[in-house]
Amino acid sequence: MIRRLFPHPWLSLTLVVTWMLLVNKVALGSLVFAAILATLVPLLTASYWPKQTRLKSPVRLAAYILLVIGDIVRANIAVAQIILFYRKDRIRSAWITVPIELTSPEAVAMLSGTITLTPGTLVADMSGCGRVLLIHCLHAPDPDAVRDEIKTRYEARLKRIFA
Fold first, then answer.
1. Which of 8, 72, 92, 126 has the most CB atoms less than 10 A away?
2. Which positions, given as ranges, span the membrane (predicted)?
């Protein structure tokens, strides 16, 4: 019964939390509307999610989110320094291709979102086979090091999080 009402419970939980953060206050009306969204959106989109991705480790997911938040803060500082203090001829922008081993669409989306949310980097495209990401970096004096860091810091963790 509960599974039919909430076919994607993590999506429902995420919608409630996101809505409450967006309205920026705890009120009964906001909570009721968040519950309506958390019920209707997964029900209306369930047919587009034919199979459910399983998390191997929700605890690792929480640790990953904290890691990404810390990286976003550090990247904001680094981008501010680059913009404010680097001469234009010292900035080494680069296009980097990153081959990925992730198979779950949710894991690939999370990796792409992580890269794009981190200031100074942006996922611009994905290959037709879904196995290579094209990333633009604001400042990448060593593109191979950036690629290796993405694979070890983010992709390796996501492989352990998603089944």
1. 8
2. 30-49, 61-86
- The string of pLDDT tens digits covering residues 85-131 is 988 889 999 999 999 999 888 899 999 999 999 999 999 999 999 89
53 lies in a domain? no
State both tokens at 37. 């969204």
Asked whether residue 27 falls in the same domain as residue 65, the answer is no
DSSP-assigned letter for residue 155:
I
In the sheet where 132-137 sits, what is the strand order? 94-99, 132-137, 121-126
Residue 96 phi, psi dihedral angles, 5° rounding: -125, 135
Clarify whether residues 67 and 139 are in a common domain: yes
**Residue 157 is part of which domain span?**
58-161
Q: Indicate the number of domains in the chain.
A: 2
Q: Which spans in 24-161 are helix H?
A: 28-45, 58-85, 105-117, 143-149, 156-161
